């Protein structure tokens, strides 16, 4: 049985796929303006390489694969930029205390009263501020893994990182978030 | 044997993070629980980490209910740009 070959219909791209692609991008870059630019670049790139479309996948799948590359390129650029926010380490990294808590970084007890306010809107806002303050790559990986609940394998494939790299990022992101919430909410 | 089961606080917190996503192995969980016997700081960290996971879960549920769409005005601009690009 012959499968019908799919052809491109760029006149309908915006109506059919703009929202889907925008949502896809905004989840990954957490920035509406940047997501808009990436979607625009995706459509342009799609038009440019339309002659390479073989009709084996749907238009949407093909456009998503272009957008995926754009997102990865964006993160590659960020990675190569110097001056990324540093995360202070919690543990001694050498000597006889290696792997133990650095005294000043030991978790503090949290005020229990704040537990009652767990669904409080202010708490959510503070959490969002703390997430936004993460270095961009940490924020992306953390959001994809924890908020969007993507599979580890999927994130690694998409961002071209190893599993151990992912867990280091998650660990550092969570440590930084814990500290941020401790300073701005739980002990406030 | 003891050496295999012994982990540092640094390793313990990493396993604790993985277990928040149900991705720590059975052996790792044993090592973590043994570590807790001698380290109350990591016990506290884990307790607080679980609480943080609860907050993240609420955030995740909020986020899932949201669909980000491009505004109609943005779509019109984009359509124009694509048409110009094609010409």
Structural description of this entry:
The complex is a heterodimer of chains A (188) and B (87). Chain A is an all-alpha fold and 188 residues long. Chain A has helices at 13-29, 32-48, 59-80, 121-132, 136-147, 152-159, 163-186. Chain A is elongated. Chain B has one domain. Chain B has five helices and no strands. The radius of gyration of chain B is 23 Å and the shape is elongated. The interface between A and B is large, with 51 and 39 residues.
What is the fold's blueprint, element by element?
The complex is a heterodimer of chains A (188) and B (87).
Chain A: H1 13-29, H2 32-48, H3 59-80, H4 121-132, H5 136-147, H6 152-159, H7 163-186
Helix pairs in contact in A: 1-2, 1-3, 2-3, 4-7, 5-7
Chain B: H1 2-5, H2 9-20, H3 26-38, H4 40-64, H5 72-86
Helix pairs in contact in B: 2-3, 2-4, 3-4
Summarize it.
The complex is a heterodimer of chains A (188) and B (87). Chain A is mainly α.
- Proportion of residues in helical segments of chain B: over 70%
User: Can you tell me the residue ranges of chain A where pLDDT is under 50 for at least 5 consecutive residues?
Assistant: 82-86
Largest sheet of chain B: none
CATH architecture label of the largest domain in chain A: Orthogonal Bundle
What structural class do the secondary elements of chain B suggest?
mainly alpha
SSE topology string of chain A: HHHHHHH
Helical proportion of chain A, percent range: 55-70%
Radius of gyration of chain A: 21 Å
Report the CATH topology name of the largest domain in chain A.
Arc Repressor Mutant, subunit A
Spell out the helices and strands of chain B N to C: HHHHH
Average pLDDT taken over every residue of chain A: 81
Number of separate helices of chain B: 5
Structural class of chain A: mainly alpha
* Number of contiguous helices of chain A: 7
Query: In angstroms, what separates the terminal alpha carbons of chain A?
Result: 68 Å
Number of domains of chain B: 1
User: Which pair of chains has the greatest number of interface residues, and how are they split between the two chains?
Assistant: A-B, 51 and 39 residues
Low-confidence stretches of chain B: none
Average of the residue pLDDT scores of chain B:
88
Strand segment tally of chain B: 0
